[in-house]
Amino acid sequence: MLEKPNMKKARRGSKTKVRVRVVEEGRARVRPDALATEEPMEIRLISGDTRQTVAVTMRTPGADFELAAGFLYGEGIVSSPEDISRISYCVDADLDAEQQYNIVNVELRGGRSYDPRPLERHFYTTSACGVCGKASLEQLELRGCPVIPPGPELAPETIYALPEKLREAQGLFDATGGLHAAALFNKEGELVALREDVGRHNATDKLVGWALLEGRLPLSDHIVMVSGRSSFEILQKCLTAGVPVVCAISAPSSLAVDVARQFDMTLVGFLRGNRFNVYSGHERVLA
User: Fold this and answer.
1) What is the CATH code for 145-284?
2) What value does the CA radius of gyration of the chain take, rounded to a whole number of Å?
3) What is the rounded (10 degree) CA torsion for 60, 62, 68, 70?
4) CB distance 125 to 233 below 8 Å
5) What is the DSSP string of 133-147?
6) Cα–Cα 20 to 30 A to 275, which of 30, 96, 105, 232?
7) Could you tell me where in the chain the CATH 3.10.20.10 domains are found?
8) The domain 15-123: what is its CATH number?
9) 2-51 pLDDT per residue, tens
């Protein structure tokens, strides 16, 4: 049985207090401010006597166990919560107390083996490199990612309302002004869950990790809404979670559109006010 992580253990918060000098109309004043915390997090995978670092990501502390679980699920290392026996922070004696909370250990049940090859695509799908997009799509096919089945059908008014609902639920953004969000809605447009992070990919991993640990996958008949733009990785993470509809405030990348079209996902971009673009899966939009 999966051991539930204690989310209250993290030492560092999601906000960091600073003092800032504000210059306005030629006058300067000093006032307190809050920044979104950004720190590295190392994900270590433990299987039997084998311990391997599989990723290091810059993230906002909070929902760290969900982030680790969501990342491993999106990369095909785990396929259900039953694959994980324990998620914990590192307690190595040679680490200082603060550093321990930047390392997350994920222990696989029964020392089960895993294929490390899916992790290789993690290093060539970032926007910083130039590896062929065709290889990325082929990796999804080789993993056996299924085509998303038909449904749900959404009224434009349901989609129009999503950005405001996402924004209203962004508590950390209100405090810092510097965080992305990924939100899960049901087909009626009601908010189910939301996660925030300095990185859009991390926010999506946290959201998928929450769904995995809560036994809610696949996310059929649901919508994921992300702040900013949609990329290949956003679509890949949503695809593995079975999400049929992905919406974004800004533009998609060309490879994101390719993924959506190949796997019959509905991809909405430039969702602002009473207007949006449908790049794939228009049959789910009743317009």
Assistant:
1) 3.40.140.10
2) 20
3) -90
4) yes
5) HHHHHHHHHHTTPPP
6) 232
7) 15-123
8) 3.10.20.10
9) 444 444 444 568 778 888 888 888 899 998 888 778 889 999 999 988 88
DSSP tag of 285: B
Contact between 52 and 116 (Cβ < 8 Å): yes
Options 129, 132, 238, 247, the catalytic residue: 129
Ramachandran category for residue 261: left, alpha or beta (phi over 0 → left; psi -120 to 50 → alpha) = alpha
The boundaries of every CATH 3.40.140.10 domain in the chain are 145-284
Joined together, the tokens standing for residue 111 give: 């020392």
Give the list of residues 6+ apart from residue 6 with CB closer than 8 angstroms, or none: none
CB 224 within 8 A of CB 235: no
Mark out the alpha helices in the chain (DSSP H runs).
64-74, 97-100, 133-142, 156-160, 162-168, 171-176, 200-213, 232-240, 254-262
Query: For the CA atoms of 107, 111, 115, 116, what is the dihedral angle to 10 degrees?
Result: 50
pLDDT in tens, 45-98: 999 888 888 889 999 999 999 999 999 999 889 999 999 999 999 876 565 666
Decide if 145 is catalytic.
no
